[in-house]
């Protein structure tokens, strides 16, 4: 009897542990209000599997229940509906009474959106992230499912993946090959021309060095002579300054004497002008004297002519 009770207790304990593990680690929550929703993706869902977490800004609010494939023959497009279970007990509305739970339709109307992001770079697993984004348009697919749909948006990783997928790799490869060919040609050209250019640069550098050395030597040689010349110019300037200072008074006196001489000459010219006036007495006397002198000169000239013709006149004189 004790053995049967022990076996029964062991079985009950195992069932309790299994139920506890299923409750805590599974998606079965008998005492929690659960809602089912679906997110429809058009692209790849690599890394997403059943049981993957559904987070709202890092807080887990549910898990993935089922992943399906829906094909629309009209548009010839394939969709991947991802069914999730959400715990609404963790979502409350601010300002409302305690225990008020918003509906998924209300949350979708307020901008609830979902996206698929990479959960681990090591394992490559993915997860569903929810967030409020009123600016993202809500694209719904009522013809594919009757379950409440949460609109999806493209994640940053998916955007990068799509960008890399649609890159013109062939064109980029051709452009890279052409660029490498140009670089190779340029390298060969430089390899041929750089030695001659280096020799020319070296020769120019040596010539410039020689020129600089010669100029330096010339400056060193001419420096004493230039210094002596500058000293001589300085002495000459000092001597000229002293001589100008010494001759300044003499020049001033000379200017004064020249001015008095000019005044005297001016007075003399004034007197001469008054003397040579046609109506002045001095002019009449001067004219009379000039006539007398002219008569004497004429008589003397006649006597000289007579003496020249007859030199004996000097001894005998003129006969009456």
From TrEMBL:
Ranges for domain Mce/MlaD: 44-128
Which Pfam families does this UniProt record tie to the protein?
A: MlaD
Q: Which InterPro entries match?
A: Mce/MlaD (IPR003399), MlaD_Phospholipid_Transporter (IPR052336)
**Origin superkingdom:** Bacteria
Name this polypeptide is given: Paraquat-inducible protein B
Q: Which organism is it from?
A: Asaia krungthepensis NRIC 0535
């Amino acid at each position: 009897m004790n053995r049967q009770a022990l076996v029964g207790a062991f079985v009950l304990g195992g069932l309790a542990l299994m139920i506890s593990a299923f409750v805590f680690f599974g998606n079965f929550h008998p005492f929690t209000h659960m809602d089912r929703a679906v997110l429809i993706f058009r692209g790849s869902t690599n890394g997403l599997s059943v049981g993957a977490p559904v987070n709202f800004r890092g807080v887990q609010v549910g898990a993935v229940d089922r992943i399906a494939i829906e094909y629309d023959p009209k548009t010839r497009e394939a969709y991947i509906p991802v069914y999730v279970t959400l715990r609404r007990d963790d979502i409350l509305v601010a300002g409302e009474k305690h225990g008020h739970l918003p509906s998924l339709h209300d949350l979708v109307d307020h901008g609830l959106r979902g996206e698929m992001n990479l959960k681990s770079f090591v394992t490559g697993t993915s997860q569903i992230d929810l967030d409020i984004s009123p600016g993202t348009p809500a694209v719904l697919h009522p013809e594919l499912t009757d379950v409440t749909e949460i609109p999806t948006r493209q994640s940053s990783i998916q955007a990068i993946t799509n960008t890399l997928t649609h890159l013109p790799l062939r064109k980029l490869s051709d452009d890279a090959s052409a660029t490498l060919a140009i670089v190779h040609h340029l390298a060969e050209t430089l390899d041929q021309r750089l030695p001659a250019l280096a020799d020319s640069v070296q020769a120019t550098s040596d010539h410039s060095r020689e020129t600089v050395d010669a100029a330096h030597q010339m400056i060193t040689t001419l420096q004493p002579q230039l210094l002596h010349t500058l000293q001589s110019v300085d002495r000459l300037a000092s001597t000229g300054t002293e001589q100008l200072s010494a001759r300044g008074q003499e020049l001033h006196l000379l200017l004064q004497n020249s001015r008095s001489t000019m005044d005297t000459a001016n007075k003399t010219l004034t007197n001469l002008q008054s003397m040579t006036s046609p109506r002045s007495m001095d002019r009449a006397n001067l004219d009379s004297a000039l006539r007398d002198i002219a008569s004497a000169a004429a008589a003397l000239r006649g006597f000289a002519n007579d003496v020249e013709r007859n030199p004996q006149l000097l001894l005998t004189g003129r006969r009456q």
